[in-house]
Design a protein that fits this description.
It is built from two helices and two strands; from the N terminus they run βαβα. It is of the alpha+beta class and 65 residues long. Strands 1-2 form a two-stranded parallel ribbon.
Length: 65
């Protein structure tokens, strides 16, 4: 948790319902947890994570304006 507390936004990519992201949010309420979830019974493809993270970064940039 100490390492993660250094960051304003944390991106969590996980399969199913996002249990780890919920755990982080409960233990780090000040953090802005962004979720990339996949509920299709298949692992992430690299491009899915890359596209999702790029979209989150773009959204964060827009929020700063």
């Amino acid at each position: 948790m100490e390492v993660l507390s250094r960051y304003r936004t944390i991106i969590v990519a996980e399969l199913n319902n996002g249990q780890f992201a919920a755990y982080l949010q409960a233990h780090m309420p000040q953090a802005h947890i962004r979720r990339v979830n996949k509920i299709q019974g298949q692992p992430f493809l690299v491009h899915e994570i890359v596209e999702s993270v790029a979209q989150i970064i773009d959204e964060e940039k827009e929020e700063k304006k």
